[in-house]
Specification:
351 residues; alpha+beta; Enolase-like, domain 1; 14 helices; repressor; DNA binding; transcription
Length: 351
């Protein structure tokens, strides 16, 4: 992240030229020339003076001029500085608010269907690709069982308090026995009551250490390897992606780079990194170009915000992907408003 103190080092004229260049670029996607700015600036300045200011801003790494064009456009550093220090994000417009409310107001009781509608609404509103990370299943665990399938394969079965059953095949430690599997299951069922899977997983090492003398080494390894599987890729597609065709309508360089973005989205079905990015702080976060480590495609931006359950725990996130010249001032409040609305609806649901 750039130091926004750099803005304070700019005089009023340089700051206004910089702001006008960025705003014009975000609106048109085109480099901005000095003659264009002479018509827009509050202070009447000659084109030659503006060119000198733009050269200074280019020297600071805030502007660049593509190819032989006389116009300037913001660099990634410039966009970051603008978003952090100069952007004015207004409230969600009444039209956008009504569309989001109408989408979420169609209550069906199905969280997945509701979030799919949210994803479509975000994509339509922003003309970008929308991402919605569905809530993690946080119901308390009622029962755990290990089932041996082969010497190198086993099944862990979890029954949740709300009646949901999940299972997954994993590779147990070599030499596991029917006895060690029973011991592992008995141990987990004794400590699992009333605890969610994430609570159980975070505390299992401490539980094993405290019961080391009573718990067989093989059973301890079985517990660790079996539960670790639940940190891996989910068999359920918890990531909803809508509006990929919208990205093709923007100037995202060549098609190969767009395909790379699509491939990345397809691969990250359990997108823990996405949620991790959102968990670094409440509210909207903006990742511009190569700052966005989630996607290998440079030249796109991600605007993302987490949403919380009734216990104020972050359980999912909503976001929008588009070109770096997104209308951040409009999209940021849309994403923020949607995340808050989804959070309230999730908090009001049981299970």
């Amino acid at each position: 992240m750039p130091d926004t103190a750099l803005l304070s080092d700019l005089n009023d004229r340089s700051r206004e030229v910089f702001r006008r260049v960025v705003e014009s670029y975000l609106a048109t996607g085109e480099p901005v020339g000095s003659r264009t700015l002479t018509r827009d600036l509050t202070e009447k300045i000659s084109a030659a003076t503006i060119r000198n200011v733009m050269q200074d801003l280019e020297h600071l790494g805030l502007l660049d001029h593509p190819h032989v064009s006389a116009g300037r456009m913001p660099t990634q550093l410039g966009l970051r500085l603008f978003v952090d220090g100069l952007m004015e994000a207004g409230p969600v417009s009444m039209t956008d608010r009504e569309m989001i409310n109408e989408t979420l107001g169609n209550e069906s009781g199905d969280t997945g269907a509701m979030l799919d509608r949210v994803s479509m609404a975000l994509s339509n509103l922003t003309q970008g690709a929308s991402l919605v990370l569905m809530p993690k299943h946080e119901a308390p665990v009622r029962h755990i069982e290990f089932v041996s399938l082969a010497p190198d394969r086993a099944l862990v079965v979890l029954v949740f308090a709300d009646g949901r059953v999940e299972n997954r095949v994993f590779n147990p430690p070599p030499g596991h026995t029917a006895s060690s599997m029973r011991e592992a299951a008995n141990f987990l069922n004794a400590v699992a009551e009333g605890r969610t899977l994430s609570d159980l997983r975070s505390g299992i090492s401490r539980e094993i250490e405290a019961s080391r003398q009573k718990l067989d080494l093989m059973a301890a390894e079985l517990i660790a390897s079996g539960l670790a599987m639940w940190d891996g890729d989910s068999t359920d597609p918890r990531l909803i992606v809508r509006g990929r065709a919208n990205l093709l309508a923007h100037e995202l360089a060549d098609l190969d780079r767009v395909r790379t973005l699509f491939d990345d989205l397809e691969r990250k079905r359990d997108i823990a990194e996405f949620l991790e990015l959102a968990e670094h702080g409440e509210g909207v976060r903006i990742f511009i170009g190569s700052e966005n480590k989630l996607f290998s495609l440079s030249g796109s931006s991600l605007v993302v915000s987490p949403y919380m359950n009734a216990d104020r725990k972050i359980v999912g996130a909503v976001g929008v992907i588009g070109p770096t010249r997104l209308n951040y001032g409009r999209i940021v409040p849309i994403v923020d408003y949607t995340a808050q609305l989804v959070g309230r609806m999730i908090a009001g649901r049981k299970g």
